[in-house]
User: Fold this.
Amino acid sequence: MKNIPDRTVTNLNNSPDTIRGSICSEPGPSNRKSPKSSLWSGFLVSAFSVFDIHSESKISHKKNQETSTGNHGWTAAVKRVMNGGSMRRIQERVLGYKTNVSNSVSDIWLLGVCYKICLEDPSQEPVHSTGYAAFSEDFSSRILMTYRKGFVSIGDSKYTSDVNWGCMLRSSQMLVAQALLVHRLGRPWRKPTPPPFDRDYIEILHMFGDSEDSLFSIHNLLKAGESYALAPGSWVGPYAMCRTWETLARFKIEKNEPEDKLFPMAVYIVSGDEDGERGGAPVLCIEDASRICSEFSRNQVDWSPLLLLVPLVLGLDKVNPRYLPFLAATFTFPQSLGILGGRPGASTYLVGVQDDKVFYLDPHEVQQTVNISRDNLEADTSSYHCNVIRQIPLESIDPSLAIGFYCRDKDDFDDFCSRASELATESNGAPLFTITEARHSPKASGTSRTHEVDSFDAADDDEDSAKDDWQLL
Assistant:
C-alpha cells in the first residue's frame, strides 16, 4: 500500500524482526558480522551520521543564515533512500544483515504445523536447531506474491503495475494459493530442488500469472470485484477482497462448465446474521455451509472442499488485546490458511506465530512480471518464494483482517467446527466467530448496518463508533 512500514535495521532490540533462515549467527551474547558486512554496515551508519550532523549544524546555523531549500530537499531525498525499502533489502539479502534474531525456544506454529525448537546443548542458538531448519524449509515453500511491473494493462486502464496499491490483492492471492497447494499436493508438500517440479505446483503458479488468461490474475480479480469498488489504482480492504473471491467461485458455477481442477472448492464468507446487520460475532452456519457446497457441485455431491473466509474488524486503531490469544490460536488449526492483515496501511500475509509475534510474507517488493506456462516443469519459480523470515508483534497488526481456513471434506469441516466451538467457549463472551447449526433468530429491530472500518482504505470518521470496538462486516 501507500505507506509501507520500514523494517529498521539500526536497532536490534526495537525493530520488527527479520530473520534470514538460511544464515545462522555465531554463538555468543551478540551477533558478530564478517569484516565485509561490518565495512558496508559502517558505511551505511556513517551515511546516516552525516545527515544527522548536517541537521544539527543546520539548526545552530539557522540563527544567522537560512539553509538552502534545494540542499535541504536533496538531503531529505537521499535520506529517504537510505531509510527506504531498497536499502533495507540490500542489507537483508546482499549483506546478510539480520535484525532481532529471536532466541525463543517456544513452539512455532506455521499454518497448522507445530515446530518444536529443541536445543542439543545450552550454547546452541535456536536458529541452529533442527526444528528451526524444518520450519524455515516449510516457510520458504509457501508461495509468495508481490507487486509486479510490466504486465499487460488492466482492462481499459493504463496500469501495467500494481505498485503502491495492490498489496491486499497480492496477500489474498497468497492465501488462496496456499489453499490450492494443500488441496492438490497436501500440507506436507515442500518445494523440491532442483527441478523438474510437480505439475500441480506449476499449474497453481500459472493460475496467478499477471494476464487475463490466468484465472486468479490481478486482472480477473479486479473484474470480479467491480461491484465491491475494486478498480486499478484503488486500495481495497479484507471484506471486499473476500467477497471478490466468492464472486469468482460463483462465476465458475454459473458458467456450468465441467468439473475441473482450476477452482475446486466452494467459498463461504462467514459473517453475521443478515450479512452483519445484527451485530455481534460472525456466525458460521452449518446449514449454509452445506448448501454452498451442494450448489458448488451442482447437487452432484453432498459436500465439497470448502474455503472459509472470516473478515473481521477487531478494534478501532489497534486490535483489542482480548482477541490476540484467539487470533494466535487459529494458526494451530490443521485447517489454517493464515490471515490477511499486517500493519496499518500495508497488507501482508500472516502465516505463523511464536510467542507474541507473527511470521509473515511481504508483498511489497516490486518484481518483473513472470507468466509461467503450465507445461514448463523446469520454470524459474524463485520469484514466488522467500527465504527471508520476518516477524512483527501480533499486537501491532491492523484490526481490519480476514482469517482463512480450508476444509477438505465433511470430516475435516466437522473437526474445524469442533475446534472453533472450543475456542469460542474459551473466549469469555468475546469470540472471533461462533458456530450454529441453523439460522433461526429473527432480525433484531432498531439495528442499522455496521459499515466496514478498514484502515487499508480509509479511516473511520464516526466518533460514536468508538463506544464499541467490535465492528461487524
Notes: The two ends are 22 Å apart (CA to CA).
